[in-house]
Amino acid sequence: MGNAVITVAGKGGVGKTSISAAIVRQLVRDHPEARILAIDADPAVGLATALAVQVKETIDDIRKAITASGEEDKSKKTAIELLGESKFRIFDAMVEQDGFAFLAVGRPEAAGCYCSINSYLKAVISMVSDEFDYVVIDGEAGIEQVNRRVMERVTHLILVTDPSKKGTQVIQTIKKVADELVMYKAIGVIINRLNDPQVARYIDTGGIPVLSEIPDDKNLALCDVQGRSVMELPDDSNLVLGVQRALKALGIA
Ligand SMILES: Nc1ncnc2c1ncn2[C@@H]1O[C@H](COP(=O)(O)OP(=O)(O)OP(=O)(O)O)[C@@H](O)[C@H]1O
């Protein structure tokens, strides 16, 4: 198989970050020889915390620096061209630890529009994807990044919802947009925090295949409180088992 670019998307607060971190954990264990990159593309910057990574420099920092240098440059190159020329800076910003590389998009300070950082992010994903066997992207909540074609190169789209109607509506909207804009190979849903199996039959994913259902995970709650990495979750914790099932269903594990 070629490289896999896995994106995790869904409504805010449903568990995208925890699931992305658990996917990284699983890939590191299943494929110790593989080159694995985790990208924190959520401006809320949770993946770094979930994986206990100390971020050195973000894509947004690099964007600002090269935009500033571009303004002094009389050759009128576009910022994305400049970014291509400073590819080494992106690789330099990656933190290597526990068997994976990590890159954060950062939190653009200018209020309002993330369009510009999103077009950088898209360029960065294309630029770095070929250098890794697996890329795992923890996306921003909602449809914006899919809509702006940031996720164009994604091969596996994992939609996360909780059992709420709002959650399932968001994943159906993301799927609709992705069907037009993303050439994904596989798509599926993880239903997170589903504690009552009786509730499952009322959940309407709009025909999107369910990859796995994950009940509340006590170990994750403990990790959260103690600020420990999801990499340290025990093998039998609900999140780990649910992510294993999902990766298997997608043909990745
Ligand atoms: N299966 C689970 N069991 C217990 N706690 C969970 C589970 N899934 C997520 N949580 C907790 O719910 C909270 C939100 O999860 P997480 O940050 O992963 O969601 P998110 O979708 O990435 O949120 P955001 O959209 O804000 O980035 C966290 O405190 C996380 O530990």
From TrEMBL:
It holds the Pfam family CbiA. The keyword Nucleotide-binding applies. Residues 6-228 form the CobQ/CobB/MinD/ParA nucleotide binding domain. Gene3D superfamilies: P-loop containing nucleotide triphosphate hydrolases (3.40.50.300). It comes from the Bacteria. Transmembrane segments: none annotated. Keywords: ATP-binding, Nucleotide-binding. The keyword DNA-binding does not apply. This is AAA family ATPase. It comes from Pseudoflavonifractor intestinihominis.
